[in-house]
Structure formats: structure tokens, C-alpha cells
Amino acid sequence: MKRLSLFCIGIYAIFTLTSILKLTAQEIPIQLQQRLEEAAEQGIYLEDEIETLEEARVAIRDSLWKNNPQILQEAQTKDGRLNINQATYEQFLALNTLTDNQIEEIMYYRYIRHGFKEAENLLLLPSMDMQTYRRLSPFICARPIKSKTLPSWHKILEYGQQQVIGDLMIPCYKRAGFEKPATATSKNINKYFQGDPWSQTIRYRWHYGQQLQAGLTVQQDAGEPFGRMGNDLGYDFISPYFFMKEVGRIEALAIGNYRADFGCGLVLNQGFSIGKYGGANTLFNYHPTLTKHSSSSESNFMQGIGATVRMGHSWHLTGLLSSRSIDATIIQDTITAIQETGYHRTWSEIDRKNAASQQVAASHIEYKPHNGAIFSIGSSLLYTHFDHPYWRPLRKYNKHYFRGQSLTAGSVDYNYHHQLWFLSGEFATDSQQGYALLQSVQYYPFNGWRLYSSIRYYSDHYHPLFANSLEEGGRIANEQGIYLGFEATPFAKTHVEGYVDYFRFPEPKYRASLPSDGIECALSIRYQAKRQWQLGLKYRFKSKGQNKTQESDEARQVMQQFLNLQFRGDITWKPTSTWQLQAKSYLTFAGYKDDKPQRGVLQVASLKYHPSIRPFQLTGQLAYFDTQGYNARIYLYEPGLLYHFSFPMLYGQGWRYTIISQWNLNPHIRLIAQWRESVYEDRMTISSGINEIKSNRQGEGLLQIQWHW
Length: 709
Fold this sequence. Notes:
Layout: H1 2-21, H2 37-41, H3 53-65, E1 82-83, H4 89-93, H5 100-113, H6 130-136, E2 140-141, H7 153-159, E3 161-171, E4 199-208, E5 212-220, E6 237-247, E7 250-261, H8 280-283, E8 289-292, E9 302-311, E10 315-331, E11 334-339, H9 347-352, E12 356-367, E13 374-390, E14 404-418, E15 421-430, E16 435-443, E17 449-458, E18 479-488, E19 494-505, E20 516-529, E21 533-547, E22 559-573, E23 579-592, E24 598-609, E25 616-627, E26 634-635, E27 649-650, E28 653-666, E29 669-680, E30 697-708
Parallel strand pairs: 1-2
Antiparallel strand pairs: 3-4, 3-30, 4-5, 5-6, 6-7, 7-8, 7-9, 9-10, 10-11, 10-12, 12-13, 13-14, 14-15, 15-16, 16-17, 17-18, 18-19, 19-20, 20-21, 21-22, 22-23, 23-24, 24-25, 25-28, 26-27, 28-29, 29-30
């Protein structure tokens, strides 16, 4: 394995050296970061086994952008057309006409040439064909960029739009935690929930285009008490925000709850990320960002004020201050654990609610000259302080984790784009002598092809409290690796992408009591046959060292390579613009190297009926799964309500189905209802402990009403 590591590093060195020696004069667009920020606002958590980036894009596009035409408002002219000189990446994507590469070329041309003089200039782009332009032309125009000044408050209040979205989830099953004993004692008080079995969320949003946004999100999880036991305002979670962007020298201003993202994410990244599965979109994250936190997620956000200010033409300064309460276990005036689940159902969970506080001060300064070349260099600084010392119980795998009351971290990041090549990287260090390095390079050898690579080196003493970037071990620490990937269009209507990732953990980690390593590779092929048919194939393999015994049984721990092999195929048929049918098949083998692997099979059929005129839509999905154990579990994307995304884990034997119906009652009110259920054929109880369901069925109804005016 050491020879393999040296071989991979050698390939990377040759690849990087070539990037310096073979620059040519051809202009190729920048690969912009597919941030999917709107998805992150909704608290999506995608498991390690997420299927493809493409499926995540489709889920978000269908469930959010396609059903929310207000996203186009800011860049629209009076006649309703989209101004291509001002539209954002998300607004172009919402047209459902342009590919990612075409959007990237538009954004790059607009940056270099300071806008389009006329819409016909789109035909100058290498990837723009006449057929695509003809489909776009009725909906776009090229107008001078609007002034970055706010209109009068009278106009803001008159033309601002408001929206209220209410969600209700009603379970048709009963968990053990809702079976309250006749008498509460110290032994059983944490074995039942204090609230009702349904959950609810209400979101209020006001916005004037995207320049001014304000809102409030309130949520109550199933089992949480309403209006009592510390919830004096009724709901367990209340999240307000105000956000302003592109007003004078202020590029962004966030007050209340918000999220921040600096550099490549080695110091601070609270945005949405699906890791290595995002390919180059994950590796090239190079713009400091502030955005509102309108999600119902109760963790991974700042609370206070943050701003990005433009100083002159080339300097950009971002600063933020945050002070928020966090859920923690405190023993003898010391924080021993921090909880981020957001659940406050039992007495012990309620006792941990807001038990500690965390203060954060951070800044990022970036230099980006406006000379036609794309180059920037930035520096980040972040200071974190807890009101109690944070001292985790010592375990073999966490001996290098952060322990203390304060931590300071800083970094230098850069990105450089020249013709066929794009390079970016970040070097970070902290006050406890840890460090992290991420270096990436991207190359366009010819039209339709893209190669990318990244090397990472995270020391075991680095303490990433807010880091989120390319990794395999779950933390930006104790990891070394090299990642090689490609995307290609070798033939018309065919798209191929794949990657190989070799990683190594020099010190013990969770579920690995000794130094370990592993490798992962994936290859996917997608073919568009005419306009009605689409075919897809994917292969994925991962080998990773981990313990065969439980973490608590240190005396009997044995390390072995855990292997996971998955095949997936899908076919989509869209006979008309109204109907779409899709079938998917999954085959998985998983287990330790010396054991017989467990097999998993999943068959999925889905149907969409989305007429363009009638006020009714219907979506359905039916899945049959048969796995030989938990190791062969399969994660499946499941359509849901607006701002709701689900990737249920399926193992054992049974069925999973969902039905969603949507009614547009009038131009201002939309009603969405969903029923989803799992039916198991190999068990009579589901889950365990306080979450146990004494049945082989788990069904729940969801109702959402949207009102905008």
C-alpha cells in the first residue's frame, strides 16, 4: 500500500507540473461551485451512501426551484424576461433549459466582457447551439445591470412579496416513548417523550427580489413539549433572520441566524456539501459567502451579525460575530459532549438544551484584481470560545480531538484560472499546532472533457470545529489522500464521469483502533436517447479498514478491510411533457474481507404526472428491497414536500412507497399532501429503545400549505 501511495503522489506531481508548462491561448469557462445553498437552508443531511450528484441536483431542482417561480424575480424585466446580465446561477438553472457547462460559460463571458450587449451574443459561446438558443430567446434579454442602490421604502413595501408555508407530519404508528408509565420515577423518566407525536413547522418569508430578505422559522419535533418545560413561546426552535445583498459597497449583510463559508472550507464552511461525490464542484470552493439560515436545522449556523464589504475595486472584507446557546452535557462545570440532533423530547434531552454557549469572531479578507484574469488570494481568521471548558472523555480514537475553552484558527487560500487550467488551495493552522492542506487542479484538455485532481493532508492535531471540505473520515483531521477524477462527453448524448480516491489515516479513528487506509472508485455513464429516453449506469467500490468488533470491546478488536460494491442502473421514459416513468435497480455486496459478503437488492419504480395547465400534480414511487443484513443497506432518494428531502435507509426485506399530490387552489394558495410507508416482511418490530414501533408497518402523512402574496 505504501508503493501505491507513492505511485499516486507521483501521478499527482506530474499532473500539476504539466499544468504549469502547457498553458495555451484557448479560453475555457470556469467551473463554478455547485453550491446548492437553498438545499442547505432546509437542513438536508445526505448520508455517505448518497447515489449521485445528478440525482441530488434533480431532487433539489424539482422540489425547490421548479416549484418556486419567485426565484426568477430579481433578474426579471418588466416584460417578464430574464436579464442574462444580472441573473444568478440558480436563476439560469431554474429555466430547465441550460446545462451546467452552458451556465458556466455564460457567467465567465459576462465576467470577462462586462456583460452581454445583446442576447444573440450567447451564440458566441462554444457550447451554445441554435436549437437551445431558440428555446431560450422568448424568455431572455440583455439589459444593463440594475443599480445597486435600494429604492424608496414605499416601493420596497409595495412590491415586496410574502410567503407562509406550514407543514404538519402525523404518524400512524406509536413509538415506545409515547407509552407513558402511570408513575414517573428517576429510572423511567428518560424512557418516554414529554410532547405530542406529530411535528410541525411554519416558515414566514418576505423578500424584495434577492436584495432584501427577512423571515422567521419555527419548528416543533415529534415528542417535544409545546408551550411548557422551557418553551415559553410555544415552539421548541425559533429562528429569525434578515439578509441584504448588493447594496452600494455592502455585498452581503446578515443579522440573526446565518451561515458562513470561507476559502476551501478548512477553517469555516457551514454550506451544503456532498463531499467527494460532487466532483470538481466540491474541490473548487473559492468564494467567501454569507447567506441566511432559514432552515429548520438547529445546528451548524451563526447567530449575530456578519457582513461583506467591498473596499475599492479589488479588496473584499468579511467579518462576523456570533453568540449562541448550544446543547451540551455538563458535568462538574465541564462540557463533556455537544449534541447537534436538535431533539428535546425526554427530560435528559431537555436538560441539555442551551446548557452552554459558544462565541465566535471571524474575518476573511480577499484580494481579487479586476484586470481580466481570474486570480484571488485571501486570508481567514477564526476565534471560538466556550463558556465552560470542553473536555471529552478520553478514548483511543479521540485522543487528539480538541480539548480546552478557546481555539484560534487561520488560513491562506487562493485560486487562479488561466485558459485551460484552474488551480485552488488552502493552508490552515490552529493555536494547538495542528495544520491542514488542500491543493486542487482542474484541466480542460478539449471540448467536453474535464480532468481534476486534489491532494489533502490533515494532521491529527488539527481541530476543525467548523470545517467542511473534501474528506473520507468524517473530520478534517488525521487524514491524507489523493483524489483523481474526470468528466467527459466522448459521444453525442453520452456523459461519463468517475473518480479514484486513495486515503490514509495515520492515527486511530472511530471504528478503527489502528492506523488504516482505503481506496474508493466510481464510474457512471448516462445516455440521452432522443428526448424521451434516458439511460444510466453506475459502478462504485470502496475498501476501508475498520474494526470487526464493537468500539467498547477494546480487548478483542481486530482490524480488517471492509468492502462495499454497488451497481446501479436506471431508465427514464418521458413520452410527453406531462408524464414521466422511471425504473431503477440496485445490487450491493458488503462485508469484511475474510467473511462472506451480504447481498442487497433494491427495485424502484416511479411515476410523475405534472400537467402544465391543470392545477393538479401527482408523484408516486414504489420500492422493493431485500438485503441480507445491515451492512448491505441501501439509501434511496425519495421525493417529498417543498423544502423536505428524504434518503431513507432500507435493509431487511419489504416495501417502501410514497404518493404525493399537489393542488393549486388559486394563484396564491397551494396544497400538497403526502403519504409514505415502509412495510417489512422479516420483522414485527421496527427500531429499538424509546423509538421502537411494535408493528411491521411505519406509515405517516404529511400536509403542507403554501400561501404567497
